[in-house]
Amino acid sequence: MKLVHEGDLLWEPSEARKQSTQIYHYMRWLKQHKNLEFQDYHSLWKWSVNNVESFWSSIWEYFDIQAKDSYHTILTSHQMPGAKWFPEATINYTEHIFRNRATSTRPAIIHTSENRTTEEVSWQKLYQDTVAMQQTLKELGINKGDRVVGYIPNIYEAVVSFLATASLGAIWSSASPDFGTQSVIDRFQQIEPKLLITVDGYRYGGKNFDRTEVAAKIQSSLPSLEATIAIPYLDEHATFKKLSAVTYWDQVIKQEQAQTLTFEYVAFNDPLWVLFSSGTTGKPKPIVQSQGGILLEHLKALSFHVDLDETDRFFWFTTTGWMMWNFLIGGLLTGSAIILYDGNPSYPSKNKLWQLAEETKMTVLGTSASYITACMKEELEPKEQFDLSHLYNISSTGSPLPPEGFQWCYENVKDDLWIASASGGTDVCTAFILGVPTLPVYAGELQCRGLGAKIESFNAHGKSQIEEVGELVLTEPFPSMPIYFWNDEDGTRLRDSYFDVFSSIWCHGDYIKITERNTCVIYGRSDATINRGGVRIGTSEIYRAVDHVQSVADSLIVDIPARNGDSFVPLFVVMKEEQELTSEIKQIIKQQIRTHCSPRHVPTEIYQVPDLPKTLNGKKLEIPVKKLLMGKPLDQVVNKGSLSNEASLDAFLEFANHLKV
């Protein structure tokens, strides 16, 4: 692969491509209807963040938001937390989804899994099934404000269940069946659901995982439950004998039903769903976002920053336990077809997602940086094996995509490709920093700060800076910020999570550099940064350097303060199959870090481990590992149910027991 450096220009859109985009159409609309003219994206962004009321009211008007009661106030205050958007308005999220149903030619959903064949679902069928589910929810006594929880994979039934829940003004939350039992209970108990929707199990990597006993344990642990809906997914003949008061999915869909959906209009700032933080320490935070805030943000982000319209087929590899599932469902707001996949993205080979892209005529492929770098290390060449002619965008999130990941896509997937690396989070259920189809792509850089998101890089004194690495902060209110945390009546937990570093400023916990040309580079979590001799460096830079070593599969580095005022910096590596960490390989790794980062950031020592602890969404547990090695008890630093690989902690526990810093 050709050598690439951070900031190298890799792709530019043609003028015809720019003029075909959704954001170009919006800019023309602003000129025609608001007498506002912008020469480029960055001037548009500056207007959007310096005039947030005007910007978000233009989004309301441009997308023709349907409201039973309209608004008089756009924003109650610029003070955070506590700012409220469009407080007088009443809306319904699901109503906006089905504005796109008047078609019989395009699918709404394409879904497939390891134990289901690929199927296209029409807008009309999605509507009819949502009507049937809504009728069932009404019969089960679900009303506005009630909580409905899904212990369910990324399958069609999950989308139907969510849309019906939101149509009634009820509140949705979901967990993937690969979550640990206690992890699911820790989430759902906090919000006291009235209804549980569950499957009997799932298939992953060619193996079946029965979850009927887990479902029964979850049910018995939720005294607030009044009903349960069961979906035979792993086994179509599953009987759920250990569950009580069960309604089966075929009863839901086949019942006599009303012909039209009804919509419960709720206040703009009423809850739509509860998302949970990864819960790596303590119980997961129950993050509540509003019907209106999510509606506006997802319309904006998916239309302008992902460039979706009714011709698109939009995919993101996700589970129902990650906010990207909620973001993926938002694709329906644009009229796009969304693609659901439940299974292992690397089974039976790492080409699985590229094969799916060909089969479904995918236009936008959303995945993780780790999947792309894994394909790169496997030296895959998807363009040689698959027809990817429909694919025009690869979006990546979860961790920073290194420059080599960008370059690999252009050399091995498609040379005319818009690559959009994105960064945001569960906290806002979107990306703050992401792509836009009218700008060039530079290696290792995120194209832009999102419209309406006043992102800045602050130094330790709270001063904004350019071309310097600092704290990622948001200095103006943003509609999809949490309206509150569940059971956090006085707001203490929310303030401690985002507003305890800078007064009335959202501090996100990432290190960011904003360049002179307004692109951004994310350097990992700010509290996991490596600090050697006062010089800080993000962990992503270390990982990028280690990725150059072919025999290394993955790595994790932490910075442990030492009693003498210095620090101990161990690097843990997972070696590729049949490879061992030798003294020679250690020297190669150190040389790569010395060359690509700096001599002072060479680790104190390098250790081989069988696996790295990661969340179910694939994020490395840098901070919990750091705390563990600093002597904190295991139960205080990590919720084992939040891990995809609990046994991976064993090596770190043993290491911690022998560590003297």
UniProtKB/TrEMBL annotation:
Protein family per UniProt: Belongs to the ATP-dependent AMP-binding enzyme family.
Record-level Gene Ontology MF annotations: acetoacetate-CoA ligase activity; ATP binding
Domain AMP-binding enzyme C-terminal: 548-619
Organism of provenance: Virgibacillus massiliensis
Keywords: ATP-binding, Ligase, Nucleotide-binding
Domain Acetyl-coenzyme A synthetase N-terminal, residue spans: 41-96
Record has DNA repair as a keyword: no
Pfam families tied to this protein: ACAS_N, AMP-binding, AMP-binding_C
Gene Ontology biological process terms from the UniProt entry: lipid metabolic process
Domain AMP-dependent synthetase/ligase: 102-477
Annotated gene: acsA_2
Keyword presence, Ligase: yes
CDD domains the record matches: AACS (cd05943)
NCBIfam families reported for this sequence: ac_ac_CoA_syn, PRK03584.1
Gene3D superfamilies noted in UniProt: 3.30.300.30, N-terminal domain of ligase-like (3.40.50.12780)
Highest taxon, organism lineage: Bacteria
Name of the protein in question: Acetyl-coenzyme A synthetase
Entry-linked InterPro entries: Acac_CoA_synth, ACAS_N, AMP-bd_C, AMP-bd_C_sf, AMP-binding_CS, AMP-dep_synth/lig_dom, ANL_N_sf
